[in-house]
Amino acid sequence: MEGSVTLWLPDVWPLQKHRHPWGRTYREGKLARWEYDESYCDAVKKTSPYDSGPRLLDIIDTAVFDYLIGNADRHHYESFQDDEGASMLILLDNAKSFGNPSLDERSILAPLYQCCIIRVSTWNRLNYLKNGVLKSALKSAMAHDPIFPVLSDPHLDAVDQRLLSVLVTVKQCTDQFGMDTVLVEDRMPLSHL
């Protein structure tokens, strides 16, 4: 099923488009730097707006979300213009989500496994949603939708399975770098990035 949503914002809230640092090249035979450089995150951490503030953690949260919904096509994101990296990411394009439920594109998690940091609140929420809680919550939220079922059972199973993969990825990071390094407090100043 295809759909479209149009968003109108007042002129006082102009949006600025940003190239996603882990975007794909979409050119046959040409890899993006993050696809071959395991230390790519170190370079991102030295680049504005990812060198301070919450933007890098926002990118990592987005990677987790995109992985759960199977969206490997996040090449841009928006923010409010002239915010100096302080506002949230605005995700307007999720068109390639919930495609093949049996395909897990692990590279979507590259920001997570290359940077090996995640917000404590994100980590806690992901742990809360394991053991079928996420699938149950999604089913419940969509139960009364006019186009029910919005997602098929294979898609719901895939979301639950991908959640476990995210948890395993974070566990690998904590095993390598320690929980104090990987789990970042939500309001912690990030000038060290």
The backbone outline, from C-alpha atoms, is globular
Strand arrangement, major sheet? 1-2
Record field, number of beta strands: 4
Mean pLDDT: 88
Rg of Cα set = 17 Å
CATH architecture term: Orthogonal Bundle
If helices are DSSP runs of H or I spanning 4 or more residues, what is the number of helices? 7
The total domain count is 1
Distance between the termini: 41 Å
What composes the largest sheet?
A: 2 strands, antiparallel
Low-confidence stretches: none
The CATH topology is what?
A: Phosphatidylinositol 3-kinase Catalytic Subunit, Chain A, Domain 5
Describe this structure in words.
The chain has helices spanning 40-44, 55-69, 110-115, 120-128, 133-142, 153-177, 179-182, and strands at 15-19, 76-80, 118-119, 183-184. The protein is mainly α. It has one domain (15-184): Phosphatidylinositol 3-kinase Catalytic Subunit, Chain A, Domain 5. Helix 2 (55-69) packs antiparallel against helix 6 (153-177) and helix 5 (133-142) packs antiparallel against helix 6. The strands form two sheets. Strands 1-2 form a two-stranded antiparallel sheet. A two-stranded parallel sheet has the order 3-4. The protein starts with 14 loop residues before the first strand and ends in a 9-residue tail after the last strand. GO terms for molecular function: ATP binding; metal ion binding; phosphotransferase activity, alcohol group as acceptor.
